[in-house]
Structures are given as C-alpha cells and as structure tokens.
Amino acid sequence: AVYMCEVERHHPQVLQNQDKESFSRLEDPLPAVVGVTYELCAGIVDKPGLSLEEIACGEVLEECGYRVPITDLRRITSYRSGVGVTGSRQTLFYAEVTDQMRTGEGGGQPEEGELIEVVEIPLEDSMKFAYDETLPKTMGVIFSFMWFQNNIAPKLPKK
C-alpha cells in the first residue's frame, strides 16, 4: 500500500481511469525501497486457543529472533488503527530482551511475503528517529517510542 501511494504521488496518471483489466505498466518504476517502512513487531490474531501474549511471544521469535517468556511481557494498551479502512484493534506489549534471549536471526517468513530486517535504534537517537518524517513509520512506532521515553527511560541509569 505504501509503495502504491508513492506510485500515485510520483506518477498520478498511471492510476487514473484504470481498472484490473487495463492497468498499464510503469515505464520508469520506483525502486522497491519506497515501499519499505519501519514497524513494530506484529502479527495477526488468527490462532484460536492462543492468548494475545502467546501470539506476541511467537511473533517476537519469528520476526526478531528473541525467545521472550510470557511473564516478561508488559501489556501497555490497546488502540484502533486503520480506522477508515479496517478498524483493526492492536494491543501493544513491552518486553526487554538480552543477547542471551536471541535464538535466531528473525526476519519473518518469506513464504508469507515477509521481508523483515531487525533494526536497533540507540536510546539517545530514539526521539529524533520517531519524529523524522523522512523515515516512513507507523503511528504505533511513534507512540511506542513516546511511551518508552515517558515510562522506562527515566528509570534507566544515567551514563
């Protein structure tokens, strides 16, 4: 969706008066990177019988490569996203991870179309990252960084 929004912004004529049968090819396609965004680790709640916490722990392992015990998760809040399109409900959890908890590379499941690179943002750069409009990110990322700065960062030892 992000890529297509950029195509529409750069080549508005391509999507005008188009339908599935007559969709034209871009003469000068944009690089795939324009569709890449920074996102939180996430997953669809589609596993009957598993709690949100169990699903979250599974997604952290699959996407980021860390084995997080359910007891290490802290539920922050739930909120709505995509209110004009999907109205989905998201639940945000917080967990601290260590190198000892890393059991794999993460990266998601390519066969499901996932192309995930784990990115670490240094604490001192976190708010600059959150507000940098040149780095495409979800509102959940910005909110999580603000929550962390208000709730966790003040309790950390000063350098």
Automatic annotation (TrEMBL):
Residues covered by the Nudix hydrolase domain: 1-143
Superkingdom, natural source: Eukaryota
Keywords recorded for this protein, A-Z: Cytoplasm, Hydrolase, Magnesium
Cofactor: Mg(2+)
Subcellular location: Cytoplasm
Catalytic activity entry: UDP-sugar + H2O = UMP + alpha-D-aldose 1-phosphate
GO BP annotations listed: nucleoside phosphate metabolic process; ribose phosphate metabolic process
Cellular component, GO, one term: cytoplasm
Family: Belongs to the Nudix hydrolase family.
Quaternary assembly: Homodimer.
Protein purpose: Hydrolyzes UDP-glucose to glucose 1-phosphate and UMP and ADP-ribose to ribose 5-phosphate and AMP. The physiological substrate is probably UDP-glucose. Poor activity on other substrates such as ADP-glucose, CDP-glucose, GDP-glucose and GDP-mannose.
PANTHER family: UDP/ADP-SUGAR PYROPHOSPHATASE (PTHR11839), URIDINE DIPHOSPHATE GLUCOSE PYROPHOSPHATASE NUDT14 (PTHR11839:SF15)
Name of the featured protein: Uridine diphosphate glucose pyrophosphatase NUDT14
Species per Swiss-Prot/TrEMBL record: Stercorarius parasiticus (Parasitic jaeger)
